[in-house]
Design goal:
Four copies of one chain form a homotetramer. Chain A is an alpha/beta fold. Chain A has two domains: 186 residues, Rossmann fold, CATH 3.40.50; 178 residues, Dihydrodipicolinate Reductase, domain 2. Chain A has twelve helices and 14 strands. In chain A, the strands form three sheets. A six-stranded parallel β-sheet of chain A has the order 3-2-1-4-5-6, sandwiched between helices. The radius of gyration of chain A is 20 Å and the shape is globular. In chain A, 59% of the residues are buried. The interface between A and B is large, with 43 and 42 residues.
Amino acid sequence: MEKIDVGILGATGAVGQQFIALLADHPWFRVSWLAASERSAGKRYGDLPWRLASPLSPDIARLEVAPLDALDKSPSLVFSALDASVAGEAETAFAASGRLVVSNARNHRMDPLVPLLIPEVNPDHLSLLDEQRRARGLKGTGGIVTNPNCSAINIAVVLAGLRQFEITRVLITTLQALSGAGYPGVASLDALGNVIPYIGGGEEEKIENETRKLLGTYENGSVRNAAFTVSATTTRVPVADGHTAVMSVELAKKPSIDELSAALAAFTAEPQSRNLPLAPKPPMIVHAAQDRPQPRLDVHHGRGMTVHVGRIRPCPILGYKLVALGHNLVRGAAGAALLNAELIVARQRSGSHADADRKLHAVAASGKVQPQQA
Amino acid sequence: MEKIDVGILGATGAVGQQFIALLADHPWFRVSWLAASERSAGKRYGDLPWRLASPLSPDIARLEVAPLDALDKSPSLVFSALDASVAGEAETAFAASGRLVVSNARNHRMDPLVPLLIPEVNPDHLSLLDEQRRARGLKGTGGIVTNPNCSAINIAVVLAGLRQFEITRVLITTLQALSGAGYPGVASLDALGNVIPYIGGGEEEKIENETRKLLGTYENGSVRNAAFTVSATTTRVPVADGHTAVMSVELAKKPSIDELSAALAAFTAEPQSRNLPLAPKPPMIVHAAQDRPQPRLDVHHGRGMTVHVGRIRPCPILGYKLVALGHNLVRGAAGAALLNAELIVARQRSGSHADADRKLHAVAASGKVQPQQA
Amino acid sequence: MEKIDVGILGATGAVGQQFIALLADHPWFRVSWLAASERSAGKRYGDLPWRLASPLSPDIARLEVAPLDALDKSPSLVFSALDASVAGEAETAFAASGRLVVSNARNHRMDPLVPLLIPEVNPDHLSLLDEQRRARGLKGTGGIVTNPNCSAINIAVVLAGLRQFEITRVLITTLQALSGAGYPGVASLDALGNVIPYIGGGEEEKIENETRKLLGTYENGSVRNAAFTVSATTTRVPVADGHTAVMSVELAKKPSIDELSAALAAFTAEPQSRNLPLAPKPPMIVHAAQDRPQPRLDVHHGRGMTVHVGRIRPCPILGYKLVALGHNLVRGAAGAALLNAELIVARQRSGSHADADRKLHAVAASGKVQPQQA
Amino acid sequence: MEKIDVGILGATGAVGQQFIALLADHPWFRVSWLAASERSAGKRYGDLPWRLASPLSPDIARLEVAPLDALDKSPSLVFSALDASVAGEAETAFAASGRLVVSNARNHRMDPLVPLLIPEVNPDHLSLLDEQRRARGLKGTGGIVTNPNCSAINIAVVLAGLRQFEITRVLITTLQALSGAGYPGVASLDALGNVIPYIGGGEEEKIENETRKLLGTYENGSVRNAAFTVSATTTRVPVADGHTAVMSVELAKKPSIDELSAALAAFTAEPQSRNLPLAPKPPMIVHAAQDRPQPRLDVHHGRGMTVHVGRIRPCPILGYKLVALGHNLVRGAAGAALLNAELIVARQRSGSHADADRKLHAVAASGKVQPQQA
């Protein structure tokens, strides 16, 4: 099967580079187009700083970085790693031009017509994309699909595994990695040997709100947020990659600790059954060792897509306590968007969206969007 | 006024060294005797590794380290920085021989006859010492007084400031410093760029239990634990000194956020009114900046005795959220014991325990316990 | 082709675990036997702590750890990751019993009859193995082959690339990673935010002596050390993996900086031409960016086997300056030994040691050494 | 004696804050005026971020930050912590207006008429200030005095102690702290668990050139650089404060190791004999323990002004090896400038510059420069 050309918006930042690394040997997608802000536009990508340990492929290094307004050159599927300061307008423009924008930016996440998607958690919310296209008159495969905040995603996967027990309240403290702040991000003098008890940009509100949309119910063309209450405190710790979340959870159905552990360990979902290329198997690993999960030992498991859970035990206040961990740049950003795109493509291929699929491939084959097809 | 000679049990460990550093220029106490396990006994203290940044005084360097069973040479007041594996028996023996043991070890903390003391929190619990002497037939100034676990202490000081609002539930996640594990403690390969979501030795239980004894009520010769519920998760982060506690608190009286902040900022207690040498003024600093308190910027304030509070705000689940920070080796260990001893001496001097005071000073003047006085 | 069974002596330490990780999917070798000190002997390997980020294979987890004296059960090829305190005698015993011991321990490195081998640097020194067998009456494939110290190896690879210019003096400062001290190794309180300007165990002497043996000349059954002078200072820095060496080099032939760079970039050797499984291609990467090589970005390149060189420029004192970097646990330990074993097996297979090859395979096929063949 | 009013140019950066911290309780100087770039000008100093662990005094917090061109309001003595991008012109303007600028910036260091001064190394170079005033027609106490780069200073103090043995060649590798790059400086993702083998801004050239001017000879109104050769490689390591320098030194007079150690330990100079407030006593500590000096344990000694030396031993190439350490923001920046000012004031007071002294104090008393006095 021919690979689908994809573009990356915001290709030079920390998440943009992670997209490129994860797509290096992807069986379905091929990066053919890169765009970034004016500072980098016009340069050869290989001449810009590359800050990942995995080497940059020569094919990508050769690409010239396009400006963000060059949307007529873009393939029909683009991943967005844009900064929130520019993502809002740019993504809207790409969607309006018929591109499918699979975005990691926060701007459109809480838009009632935009799916906030984790394939293991709420694949049915993808149907919002049709509503979005209809309501906004988007051409062809145009539209925006988002993934949640890098902390919210691990938490939401855990909550998806607990949904059957009826979640009522969730109290969370996160210990978040430096790479979550992008590059250059946190100054080393603030990070080294220190804890910063606050993360700007509404991090706590994102966790509190996005989890409720993610675990919400899709009905009659819209999502009704889940009814549980979330309280989050977010802190920054001197860890390179991997957000840890210490969670206390209240569950109406009062499972035993063993039942709760078993439910998380047994959890599986559509990405696993569809065998999506980046789907971790299983999506969650439940650790028995008391001192796990740890960023250093666990964060790279499953190519960074696995969510880790440990220290499952009773909480004298809310009933249940546990610790969750996931790779914030992979499971929490680039890998999240990529898995979203894999779900979309897999569903199209399996015939559930046969028409859209034809369009996307026709477009992909030509390397650019052809207006008459939209 | 003549200084009182004091001894240090466990003088070679991380807490023992901190005792020596804090006592270097103490106006009331003079370190005249050091004891440690057999490995170090018989050696000149200055020939053993000194791992603090503040220099070791030549007067202390000259002292020969005594074995733990040489109690007849010990002064009448000893600080114990012993490891829990040996503290239980050793402290009992020193108390039985008429020494006042002001201990940082966990062994006797939950003993109903042993004060678990924070001078700002429960100075009235010191009366247990008389019960202890009576019940156990301890000679003269003999007895054991303890301070809480290095995490529990910061939390308890904050709770003392909130006591007026009737605490009902407290949910805590700690981010604890490496020095809390002693030396050599945590392996650097486990610590660097990592979070360990578990601390051994019953750390979480200590927080859950000690805070309830600390905030308990002294009545008729015993302490009735406070009735609130505590749930703690303790983690280790790559910070040298300073335990951070992220707290959610439920209060029956529902103060406003401003009332709660004002109460903490206004909190003061006996050590401050007595002007004890090591008493921080104020005991708590309430930070307005969202990114505070931080170990790097705040932990050395007030010679390490200040408790820091920040991020006071509503919790949608328990009502109130905040972040607390304190120096685990000072406020949480050596400084805690030292302030306990200061309170005891200050009360004696002020006549409230005139008789005991005479004994302690008679003993101190002679440099050793005189049996006829006991 | 059937895989050769191999054993690992000292399988539980940092280097032992790295051996297991590197051998997980090795095309020629299969780990079938593990041995360690008494503390671990008798246990299932999977029940012991595993401290690497790459997962432990279930096949290895199943193995029971043998004691170090169980040599009659060992395969004919064993890798030694033993601590120097026990490696001397144990390796001698295994060699005497007919096993080929490919060791990372320091004990036998400077033995005139033991090859101190880096396949890219001095593959001809392997002939010492025949001398060793003859002189010591070793049975069959018995013998000891060693790789150098984890710092010396990167330096020696660089010097091999410069050998054509006649090296006369080399002045080195290393900045070494924490994993070089094993586990638990350096205490986190000593490591965090600190530099320790000394590494025990004769680290500097090893660099000064081993490089001269490695670059020495094999003639008439013995190695004559290279004549250049080496001066080393070794320091410990808070890096997990990757030893950096800042080097000033004096060369008799005075190449230009461009000639020197070109020589290092063009350097290749027998492991590359034989296409050994673990041979990095090229063995050295010469970086043009001034801020490279860096442990974080470069150390995992080439599965950790690549040696990195950067900052090549004139030294006003010795003529040439550069910075080298290599992965101390892979290129500097387990990978080094593994590449040594690959060279030995590849040479046997290619007929240069046809007789030894037959024996090794006969032994390997049977799973244990058969005395009649020795 | 009345305190002298001083101003600080560049008061908001890392070095500017260090000036304020060191001047908090200075017996001779009182900070009365702060200036910074336009971004901060007009603000109350206490409203700007304060990034040091020592608390900011309320007297300083109250000051309004002046713009850099408000020189008519400045006291007659100003310390400059300006960034090199603006220091050149600004310092020239302040000097022209009759202010004595004691600067940490690099811009004027190599100016033949500007003293590059370390009071322990080359106090006689201060006479250049008279040449400077004469040649440039500076009014009154106007002029510029500089201190060297934060790495060069520790090295120069060590070399001053070795000068008697006739230094011929010095080869240096530094391991420099993050605070040397200012704030925000190095990105935490580049710093954490990493070594960067390069420091921009000509760091190596500064060490190579400044040490030769510092150890140079003042004769007939100018400084003749020392004739020895210096070769430096500078690296960045994840340490907060404290630059380590690994040095190999060639000495014409070939002292024994003991003679060299004794010379460094016995070294003392004018700041010590004059008992200047910030002068460390002794200026250098020679450590016997092999694992010292270390940033964590040693850098705060002597209020950060002590230079530490350890690991003195033979170098097979240049003769002598040692490791030096000093606090880059104190001994290497703010403290260096402050000691320079103390030397100037002390000499004036002791009558050697009685006339200038009168002027400086007249000016200081009035709080501003009075043109008629210039």
